[in-house]
Amino acid sequence: MSDEVLVERRGAVQIVTINRPAVKNALDARTAAAVAAAVDELDALDELRAGVLTGAGGTFSAGMDLKAFLRGETPSIEGRGLCGITVTPPRKPLIAAVEGWALAAGLELLLACDLVVASRTARFGVPEVKRSLVARQGGALKLPRRIPYAVALELLLTGDPITAVRAAEVGLVNRLTDEGGALAGALELAGAIAANGPLAVEATKRIARSAADWSLEEGWASQFEIAAPVFRSEDAREGAAAFAEKRTPVWKGQ
After folding, report:
1. What pTM, to 2 d.p., does this model score?
2. Is position 128 annotated as part of the catalytic site?
């Protein structure tokens, strides 16, 4: 990976850190490509079962790098969206660990994640309208699906930020931590997910993310189609056997 993005593993969890603290982890083309490559690795390697996305230096991301934008760069990857994940998110669960600001494109990057752990001092905002811009990398599209419509519209139309406590109240943040504790909290949550059957986790995420786009009739048919191979898997038999034998299951992803 490039210096702009650091990647490490903690057991079955991949940690992806945007490493541009001097510019508040603003997103340029090189950073976007490196995040996309890391997430591709997350999906490709069977030993990885969940990912955590965070930022170095006490900031998640302050948004798009405007200097890079003026040079003609974009942090969007064709067909995949911002950093390669807003249009085509990973199959495996991805958790945002937020310290400081998640702003503009930084918030849109967060919305590509499945879960959010944030310090109580974190702040969230989509200020694009203050510059006569539109949050087109998922902010205007996804925020009303993630939190109550009226709250999302207030954020989008005023451009004013909210605190992490308020973000948790409206459902944007899953867990709050003390300042400096977001990564540890995200790793704890990722570990709980990674302990479960990987085939079941991936199928469950796929159903949950798709549910809003299905009619009820489509949903019943589609979820059975997605879930059926999981029920026929070796892991499903292992889960039942481990329960009966009162032991920890050993997953094979098969």
Report:
1. 0.94
2. yes
